[in-house]
Protein backbone atom coordinates (compact mmCIF):
# COMPACT_ATOMS: atom_id res chain seq x y z
CA UNK A 1 0.00 0.00 0.00
CA UNK A 2 1.30 3.44 -0.90
CA UNK A 3 2.59 5.55 1.99
CA UNK A 4 0.09 8.28 1.11
CA UNK A 5 -2.75 6.12 2.40
CA UNK A 6 -0.90 3.89 4.86
CA UNK A 7 -3.09 0.89 5.70
CA UNK A 8 -6.35 2.75 5.18
CA UNK A 9 -9.25 0.68 3.86
CA UNK A 10 -11.23 3.80 2.97
CA UNK A 11 -10.20 7.19 1.58
CA UNK A 12 -12.87 9.85 2.07
CA UNK A 13 -13.08 13.13 0.16
CA UNK A 14 -15.79 15.23 1.77
CA UNK A 15 -17.49 18.07 -0.13
CA UNK A 16 -15.92 16.51 -3.22
CA UNK A 17 -17.86 18.78 -5.56
CA UNK A 18 -15.62 21.66 -4.43
CA UNK A 19 -12.44 19.89 -5.56
CA UNK A 20 -11.37 20.96 -9.04
CA UNK A 21 -11.42 18.06 -11.52
CA UNK A 22 -12.42 15.69 -8.70
CA UNK A 23 -13.64 13.04 -11.14
CA UNK A 24 -10.29 12.80 -12.91
CA UNK A 25 -8.45 12.90 -9.58
CA UNK A 26 -10.60 10.09 -8.19
CA UNK A 27 -10.01 7.99 -11.30
CA UNK A 28 -6.22 8.43 -11.01
CA UNK A 29 -6.32 7.41 -7.34
CA UNK A 30 -8.42 4.34 -8.14
CA UNK A 31 -6.24 3.30 -11.09
CA UNK A 32 -2.97 3.62 -9.17
CA UNK A 33 -4.12 2.50 -5.72
CA UNK A 34 -7.03 0.08 -6.23
CA UNK A 35 -7.00 -1.49 -2.75
CA UNK A 36 -8.59 1.27 -0.60
CA UNK A 37 -12.20 2.14 -1.34
CA UNK A 38 -12.64 5.76 -2.36
CA UNK A 39 -15.70 7.50 -0.91
CA UNK A 40 -16.75 10.85 -2.39
CA UNK A 41 -19.40 12.78 -0.47
CA UNK A 42 -21.00 16.09 -1.20
CA UNK A 43 -23.87 18.30 -0.09
CA UNK A 44 -24.52 19.32 -3.68
CA UNK A 45 -25.56 16.20 -5.50
CA UNK A 46 -25.92 18.07 -8.79
CA UNK A 47 -22.34 19.37 -8.76
CA UNK A 48 -20.97 16.04 -7.58
CA UNK A 49 -22.79 14.05 -10.25
CA UNK A 50 -21.69 16.42 -13.01
CA UNK A 51 -18.03 16.29 -11.92
CA UNK A 52 -17.51 12.56 -11.45
CA UNK A 53 -19.84 10.55 -13.67
CA UNK A 54 -17.94 10.74 -16.93
CA UNK A 55 -14.42 10.01 -15.58
CA UNK A 56 -15.69 7.26 -13.26
CA UNK A 57 -18.00 5.43 -15.64
CA UNK A 58 -17.82 1.76 -14.67
CA UNK A 59 -16.00 1.55 -11.32
CA UNK A 60 -18.30 3.87 -9.35
CA UNK A 61 -21.53 3.19 -7.45
CA UNK A 62 -23.96 5.91 -6.36
CA UNK A 63 -25.53 5.85 -2.90
CA UNK A 64 -28.11 8.13 -1.32
CA UNK A 65 -27.01 9.01 2.19
CA UNK A 66 -30.40 9.20 3.87
CA UNK A 67 -31.06 10.71 7.30
CA UNK A 68 -31.04 8.14 10.09
CA UNK A 69 -33.31 5.15 9.60
CA UNK A 70 -35.67 3.93 12.30
CA UNK A 71 -33.53 0.81 12.74
CA UNK A 72 -30.50 3.04 13.45
CA UNK A 73 -32.09 4.97 16.32
CA UNK A 74 -33.96 2.07 17.93
CA UNK A 75 -32.85 -1.35 19.13
CA UNK A 76 -36.15 -3.17 18.55
CA UNK A 77 -39.73 -2.70 17.35
CA UNK A 78 -40.97 -1.60 20.78
CA UNK A 79 -38.29 1.07 21.00
CA UNK A 80 -39.08 2.17 17.43
CA UNK A 81 -42.76 2.74 18.31
CA UNK A 82 -41.72 4.84 21.30
CA UNK A 83 -39.63 7.10 19.06
CA UNK A 84 -42.19 7.56 16.29
CA UNK A 85 -43.48 10.92 17.52
CA UNK A 86 -39.96 12.33 17.77
CA UNK A 87 -39.26 11.15 14.21
CA UNK A 88 -42.46 12.69 12.85
CA UNK A 89 -41.80 16.05 14.51
CA UNK A 90 -38.00 16.42 14.46
CA UNK A 91 -37.11 14.21 11.53
CA UNK A 92 -34.00 12.07 11.37
CA UNK A 93 -30.97 14.29 10.86
CA UNK A 94 -28.23 12.84 13.13
CA UNK A 95 -27.37 16.14 14.79
CA UNK A 96 -30.95 16.88 15.86
CA UNK A 97 -31.15 13.54 17.67
CA UNK A 98 -28.33 14.59 19.99
CA UNK A 99 -30.04 17.83 21.02
CA UNK A 100 -32.80 18.89 23.35
CA UNK A 101 -36.15 19.56 21.70
CA UNK A 102 -35.66 23.35 21.78
CA UNK A 103 -32.13 23.18 20.39
CA UNK A 104 -33.24 20.74 17.71
CA UNK A 105 -36.05 23.02 16.53
CA UNK A 106 -33.65 25.97 16.31
CA UNK A 107 -31.19 23.85 14.33
CA UNK A 108 -33.89 22.59 11.97
CA UNK A 109 -35.30 26.06 11.34
CA UNK A 110 -31.84 27.23 10.36
CA UNK A 111 -31.29 24.13 8.25
CA UNK A 112 -34.57 24.58 6.41
CA UNK A 113 -34.13 28.28 5.76
CA UNK A 114 -30.40 28.47 5.01
CA UNK A 115 -28.80 25.16 4.09
CA UNK A 116 -31.37 24.33 1.43
CA UNK A 117 -30.39 27.41 -0.55
CA UNK A 118 -26.64 27.58 0.06
CA UNK A 119 -25.40 24.02 -0.25
CA UNK A 120 -28.04 21.90 -1.91
CA UNK A 121 -27.85 23.44 -5.35
CA UNK A 122 -24.95 23.38 -7.76
CA UNK A 123 -22.74 26.47 -7.68
CA UNK A 124 -23.49 27.17 -11.35
CA UNK A 125 -27.26 26.68 -11.01
CA UNK A 126 -29.28 29.84 -11.49
CA UNK A 127 -32.32 30.04 -9.23
CA UNK A 128 -34.51 32.57 -7.46
CA UNK A 129 -34.53 32.09 -3.68
CA UNK A 130 -37.93 33.76 -3.40
CA UNK A 131 -39.50 31.23 -5.76
CA UNK A 132 -37.75 28.32 -4.04
CA UNK A 133 -38.91 29.53 -0.63
CA UNK A 134 -42.54 29.87 -1.70
CA UNK A 135 -42.45 26.55 -3.56
CA UNK A 136 -40.99 24.63 -0.63
CA UNK A 137 -43.55 26.00 1.80
CA UNK A 138 -46.35 25.17 -0.61
CA UNK A 139 -45.06 21.61 -1.07
CA UNK A 140 -44.65 21.24 2.71
CA UNK A 141 -48.36 21.95 3.18
CA UNK A 142 -49.30 19.52 0.40
CA UNK A 143 -47.50 16.39 1.61
CA UNK A 144 -49.67 13.38 0.86
CA UNK A 145 -51.88 15.29 -1.58
CA UNK A 146 -51.87 15.11 -5.36
CA UNK A 147 -50.26 18.18 -6.85
CA UNK A 148 -50.70 19.73 -10.27
CA UNK A 149 -47.79 21.60 -11.84
CA UNK A 150 -50.26 24.11 -13.27
CA UNK A 151 -51.79 24.79 -9.85
CA UNK A 152 -48.37 25.12 -8.22
CA UNK A 153 -47.28 27.56 -10.93
CA UNK A 154 -50.42 29.64 -10.37
CA UNK A 155 -49.88 29.77 -6.60
CA UNK A 156 -46.25 30.88 -6.80
CA UNK A 157 -46.88 33.09 -9.85
CA UNK A 158 -44.51 31.48 -12.34
CA UNK A 159 -44.94 29.50 -15.53
CA UNK A 160 -45.70 25.79 -15.43
CA UNK A 161 -42.29 25.08 -17.00
CA UNK A 162 -40.54 27.10 -14.28
CA UNK A 163 -42.42 25.26 -11.53
CA UNK A 164 -41.44 21.91 -13.05
CA UNK A 165 -37.80 22.99 -13.34
CA UNK A 166 -37.64 24.08 -9.70
CA UNK A 167 -39.24 20.89 -8.43
CA UNK A 168 -36.74 18.94 -10.52
CA UNK A 169 -33.91 20.91 -8.88
CA UNK A 170 -35.31 20.16 -5.42
CA UNK A 171 -35.49 16.47 -6.27
CA UNK A 172 -31.93 16.36 -7.63
CA UNK A 173 -30.79 18.07 -4.43
CA UNK A 174 -32.50 15.29 -2.40
CA UNK A 175 -34.81 17.66 -0.57
CA UNK A 176 -38.02 16.21 -2.00
CA UNK A 177 -38.97 13.22 -4.11
CA UNK A 178 -41.95 12.57 -6.34
CA UNK A 179 -44.28 9.63 -6.86
CA UNK A 180 -46.13 9.30 -10.13
CA UNK A 181 -49.40 7.46 -10.57
CA UNK A 182 -49.71 3.74 -11.07
CA UNK A 183 -51.40 3.23 -14.40
CA UNK A 184 -52.09 -0.15 -15.93
CA UNK A 185 -55.79 0.24 -16.68
CA UNK A 186 -56.03 3.46 -18.68
CA UNK A 187 -59.83 3.58 -18.48
CA UNK A 188 -60.09 3.83 -14.70
CA UNK A 189 -57.02 5.76 -13.64
CA UNK A 190 -55.89 9.37 -13.75
CA UNK A 191 -52.32 9.93 -14.84
CA UNK A 192 -51.30 13.59 -14.80
CA UNK A 193 -50.87 14.29 -11.08
CA UNK A 194 -47.92 13.70 -8.76
CA UNK A 195 -47.33 13.45 -5.04
CA UNK A 196 -44.32 15.14 -3.46
CA UNK A 197 -42.69 14.01 -0.21
CA UNK A 198 -39.74 15.22 1.85
CA UNK A 199 -36.61 13.22 2.56
CA UNK A 200 -36.68 14.55 6.13
CA UNK A 201 -39.72 15.59 8.15
CA UNK A 202 -37.70 17.85 10.43
CA UNK A 203 -36.81 19.97 7.40
CA UNK A 204 -40.45 19.89 6.28
CA UNK A 205 -41.68 21.03 9.69
CA UNK A 206 -38.97 23.69 9.81
CA UNK A 207 -40.22 25.15 6.53
CA UNK A 208 -43.69 25.71 7.99
CA UNK A 209 -42.34 26.40 11.50
CA UNK A 210 -44.48 23.76 13.17
CA UNK A 211 -42.86 21.54 15.78
CA UNK A 212 -45.95 21.02 17.90
CA UNK A 213 -46.61 17.58 19.44
CA UNK A 214 -48.82 15.26 17.42
CA UNK A 215 -51.79 15.77 19.72
CA UNK A 216 -51.94 19.43 18.65
CA UNK A 217 -51.55 18.87 14.89
CA UNK A 218 -53.96 18.38 12.01
CA UNK A 219 -51.35 16.93 9.62
CA UNK A 220 -50.53 13.68 11.42
CA UNK A 221 -51.87 11.56 8.56
CA UNK A 222 -49.63 13.31 6.04
CA UNK A 223 -46.60 13.04 8.35
CA UNK A 224 -47.22 9.32 8.86
CA UNK A 225 -47.58 8.69 5.13
CA UNK A 226 -44.34 10.57 4.37
CA UNK A 227 -42.54 8.80 7.23
CA UNK A 228 -43.57 5.31 6.16
CA UNK A 229 -42.57 5.85 2.53
CA UNK A 230 -39.15 7.35 3.27
CA UNK A 231 -38.41 4.68 5.90
CA UNK A 232 -39.33 2.04 3.35
CA UNK A 233 -36.87 3.59 0.89
CA UNK A 234 -34.13 3.48 3.54
CA UNK A 235 -34.88 -0.16 4.31
CA UNK A 236 -34.84 -1.20 0.65
CA UNK A 237 -31.48 0.50 0.04
CA UNK A 238 -30.06 -1.19 3.13
CA UNK A 239 -31.22 -4.55 1.77
CA UNK A 240 -29.96 -3.68 -1.73
CA UNK A 241 -33.45 -4.12 -3.18
CA UNK A 242 -34.51 -2.01 -6.16
CA UNK A 243 -38.17 -0.99 -6.18
CA UNK A 244 -40.41 1.30 -8.18
CA UNK A 245 -42.91 3.33 -6.17
CA UNK A 246 -46.21 4.88 -7.21
CA UNK A 247 -49.51 6.00 -5.76
CA UNK A 248 -52.87 4.95 -7.20
CA UNK A 249 -55.99 6.99 -7.77
CA UNK A 250 -59.08 6.29 -9.83
CA UNK A 251 -61.45 8.67 -11.58
CA UNK A 252 -63.94 7.93 -8.79
CA UNK A 253 -61.37 9.25 -6.26
CA UNK A 254 -60.52 5.90 -4.73
CA UNK A 255 -56.88 5.99 -3.59
CA UNK A 256 -53.98 3.85 -2.39
CA UNK A 257 -51.00 5.57 -0.77
CA UNK A 258 -48.24 3.35 -2.16
CA UNK A 259 -47.94 0.76 -4.90
CA UNK A 260 -44.57 -0.98 -4.88
CA UNK A 261 -43.07 -3.02 -7.70
CA UNK A 262 -40.07 -5.26 -6.95
CA UNK A 263 -39.15 -7.29 -10.02
CA UNK A 264 -42.41 -9.05 -10.96
CA UNK A 265 -43.96 -8.65 -7.50
CA UNK A 266 -46.38 -5.85 -6.70
CA UNK A 267 -47.78 -4.78 -3.34
CA UNK A 268 -50.27 -2.09 -2.29
CA UNK A 269 -50.09 -0.22 1.03
CA UNK A 270 -52.30 2.19 2.94
CA UNK A 271 -50.84 4.14 5.87
CA UNK A 272 -53.03 4.76 8.94
CA UNK A 273 -51.40 6.30 12.01
CA UNK A 274 -54.18 5.30 14.38
CA UNK A 275 -54.35 1.78 12.97
CA UNK A 276 -57.72 2.45 11.43
CA UNK A 277 -59.15 -0.36 9.38
CA UNK A 278 -59.10 0.13 5.63
CA UNK A 279 -60.38 -2.02 2.81
CA UNK A 280 -58.77 -2.31 -0.57
CA UNK A 281 -60.63 0.00 -3.00
CA UNK A 282 -63.12 -1.96 -5.06
CA UNK A 283 -61.85 -0.66 -8.39
CA UNK A 284 -58.26 -1.58 -7.55
CA UNK A 285 -59.30 -5.03 -6.32
CA UNK A 286 -61.25 -5.64 -9.53
CA UNK A 287 -58.43 -4.49 -11.81
CA UNK A 288 -55.56 -6.03 -9.81
CA UNK A 289 -56.99 -9.04 -7.97
CA UNK A 290 -53.57 -10.64 -7.47
CA UNK A 291 -51.92 -7.61 -5.79
CA UNK A 292 -51.82 -8.00 -1.98
CA UNK A 293 -53.07 -5.05 0.07
CA UNK A 294 -51.84 -4.13 3.56
CA UNK A 295 -52.57 -1.39 6.07
CA UNK A 296 -49.45 -0.06 7.81
CA UNK A 297 -50.02 1.37 11.29
CA UNK A 298 -47.82 1.79 14.34
CA UNK A 299 -48.21 -1.86 15.32
CA UNK A 300 -47.44 -3.22 11.83
CA UNK A 301 -44.67 -0.79 10.89
CA UNK A 302 -41.81 -3.04 11.95
CA UNK A 303 -42.69 -5.66 9.34
CA UNK A 304 -42.54 -2.92 6.70
CA UNK A 305 -39.20 -1.26 7.51
CA UNK A 306 -37.16 -3.88 9.42
Report on this model:
This protein is α/β, with parallel strands linked by helices and 306 residues long. It has two domains: 1-63, no CATH class; 70-305, Winged helix-like DNA-binding domain superfamily/Winged helix DNA-binding domain (Arc Repressor Mutant, subunit A, Orthogonal Bundle). It contains 14 helices and nine strands. It has helices spanning 22-32, 45-52, 70-73, 77-82, 84-90, 94-97, 101-118, 129-141, 149-156, 160-172, 201-207, 220-238, 282-287, 302-305, and strands at 10-13, 37-40, 146-147, 176-181, 194-198, 244-249, 255-262, 265-271, 293-296. Strands 3-5-4-6-7-8-9 form a seven-stranded mixed beta sheet, sandwiched between helices. The protein has a two-stranded parallel sheet with strand order 1-2. Helix 13 links the parallel strand 8 (265-271) and strand 9 (293-296). Helix 5 (84-90) packs across helix 11 (201-207) and helix 9 (149-156) crosses helix 10.
Topology:
Blueprint: E1 10-13, H1 22-32, E2 37-40, H2 45-52, H3 70-73, H4 77-82, H5 84-90, H6 94-97, H7 101-118, H8 129-141, E3 146-147, H9 149-156, H10 160-172, E4 176-181, E5 194-198, H11 201-207, H12 220-238, E6 244-249, E7 255-262, E8 265-271, H13 282-287, E9 293-296, H14 302-305
Parallel strand pairs: 1-2, 4-6, 8-9
Antiparallel strand pairs: 3-5, 4-5, 6-7, 7-8
Amino acid sequence: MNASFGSARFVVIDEAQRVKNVGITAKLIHDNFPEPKLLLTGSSSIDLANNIKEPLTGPSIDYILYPLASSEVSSNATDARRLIEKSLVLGSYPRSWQMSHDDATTYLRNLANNYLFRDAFATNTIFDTTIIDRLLRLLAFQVGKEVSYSEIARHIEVSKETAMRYIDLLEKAFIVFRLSQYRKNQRNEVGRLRKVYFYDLGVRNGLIDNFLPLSYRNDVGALWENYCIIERKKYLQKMNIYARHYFWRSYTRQEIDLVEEICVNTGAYEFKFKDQKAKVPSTFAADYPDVPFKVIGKDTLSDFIY
